[in-house]
Batch of 3 targets.
Target 1
Amino acid sequence: MPGSDPENPRGPLGDARPDATNPHVQDESGQKPEKLEDRPMVGSVKPEDYPEDERAKGA
């Protein structure tokens, strides 16, 4: 039954056609990514983030 699904056109053997339009194309309405310089540092930890009494005691 090739051609029975207009959203997913198939070839004569039931395979996907490479010239079919992509139904998952995103439009340009999403937010643009932030510049790298403007992004917050989420993985960096400073000693000031932990009080002295909560730090592990080194050997």
Target 2
Amino acid sequence: MSGKVQQIKVHTEGGVVTTAETLMVVVPNNDFLEVTASVQNKDIVFIQIGQSVIIKVESFPYTRYGYLTGKVKNINLDAIEDPKFGLVFNVIVSLEDNYLSTKHNKLPLSSGMSVTAEINTGMRSIISYLLSPLEESVTESLHER
């Protein structure tokens, strides 16, 4: 197996490790990368395996370098607590390519890069989007306490 060491757990020479402790994480060469995306609890019901995903790599501004495409591969069934967003579900996205293409070359990606995943969950008209707060307040105001 050939690959790159991504994480090393023991940094000291002669350091002691316990049984079954992970020493390092190795990312194999020539293996397709996957993205682990966090989806908020309120949005998870709209995500399905096989949905198309657009991946924007933070290191390469998408307006200049474009974006990657992928598909939802797996949806974790257990929510985890995120300090910023509350309950989130991890969604695994498989990428179609391990590089961004420009006119002249291919820019390789590496494990650990920050990305933004955009999962298309449907379309809405602009008027529907603008009127939804009004519709919600009217619906809520018609209920008796």
Target 3
Amino acid sequence: MRYVDWLFRLFETILVALLACMVIMVFGNVVLRYGFNSGITVSEELSRFAFIWLAFLGTVVGMRDRAHLGADFLVSALPPLGRKICFVLCSMLIIWSCSLIFLGTIRGHSINMQNYSPVMGIPMEYVYASAYVLSIGIIALTAARLYQFARGRISNDDLFSAVDAEEALAIETPGPGRTAAKSEEKNQ
């Protein structure tokens, strides 16, 4: 297994742990508040911080898996050269945007190390450090795709692979009077 695969397995494990912690903290806090008239003091703040990390880390994992939703109706109408130009321009725009996120996080670093969360008392930079992971991860993934493109390892069809909502769900709901088996037979 390559190092990158191992790293993304670690990211996915962290995502699962963050989601599980959020669910346990919020559900536990609701039960304690309504059932026992008490609560976990740090539950709301910690679940919010976990959600921030979950969103930013999940964005990097989604970028690697190319799982983000997109609209490719304009790009699919372009000739092959237009697709290539559009791919390079979009990739450069992504790198530029993530560079701005990274530089903005660096500029706010000293300020955020001085700001402490109200309940837990930890520096807010630990929460906002997720922007470092987001920007570095997406820049690295986009640069790797640009490198593969420059080496000729990406076909024209793989330049833009927007995921349709139906493909993302991969669920076909049978119509009235049809069963799932009939729908499957019709597709074959």
